[in-house]
Fold this sequence. Notes:
This protein is of the alpha+beta class. It has ten helices and 18 strands. The chain folds into three domains: 3-105, 3-Layer(aba) Sandwich (Rossmann fold); 113-130 and 201-326, D-amino Acid Aminotransferase, Chain A, domain 1 (2-Layer Sandwich); 134-197, Dna Ligase, domain 1. The protein is 30% helix and 28% strand. Helix 2 packs antiparallel against helix 3 (108-114). The longest helix has 17 residues, at 251-267.
Amino acid sequence: xxxxxxxxxxxxxxxxxxxxxxxxxxxxxxxxxxxxxxxxxxxxxxxxxxxxxxxxxxxxxxxxxxxxxxxxxxxxxxxxxxxxxxxxxxxxxxxxxxxxxxxxxxxxxxxxxxxxxxxxxxxxxxxxxxxxxxxxxxxxxxxxxxxxxxxxxxxxxxxxxxxxxxxxxxxxxxxxxxxxxxxxxxxxxxxxxxxxxxxxxxxxxxxxxxxxxxxxxxxxxxxxxxxxxxxxxxxxxxxxxxxxxxxxxxxxxxxxxxxxxxxxxxxxxxxxxxxxxxxxxxxxxxxxxxxxxxxxxxxxxxxxxxxxxxxxxxxxxxxxxxxxxxxx
Length: 328
């Protein structure tokens, strides 16, 4: 018996473009013998299914169902492929929890907390062998003191929206006099901002997922870019960044990364596949946690498909195992 799956894509932020590409990869690799897939687009205007042979059909949000040619379609589960709001911040997860429909991502609480970079760092900072950059969190509706920030943190600074994704609104500040303009830029994206000390080192990202009941750490990717930092352009423009999967790491470093990444996954009570960004100092020294993405990109060039391939698992099998683990 095929499972009826809603593949939810789109969203209400600038990341909807990436979401649509992710959904295309997922749809292409979901086994048609095992799953009956309906791609559902979520936009500011509504939630709808758009079959190839007819006009768009609105989702009934009362029970997340569709009426197609007089037949009611309900879903065994939802594959959430929305980056940013409302897919990654816990809102959709809470909605599906109330309806009793399982989904492929972390639960509502973990999704909401991990969307906030400052709160996430507070939870993971006591994990053995994990370091976090010194930072200050400020809010648009509360006063903040630039002089205090400059006194507490060493240049250069990273200024980033606390709840955003894909590095939108982020700045690297080398001169203290540029701090205010960087804060203003970030406040255009979010009401909370994280200002942290810049950590100089090699940048990596690693996927972590529960497959066959076991937490599995995928081969890490090293990211090198000629740009100041790994921003939206570097992430989504071919050729701007060099990505090496699997990353060239010493065996003992690879084991340490796997232990720390697994500990983060468990400490944050993650489900499904997540991606952890981190920096290694010097000669594969201290592990600095940067952030976690609970709905990482699944486009053809995204890190997770690269890492799944390096792990030696066909993407088709990976998604089948992911759905089995999260939806049943």
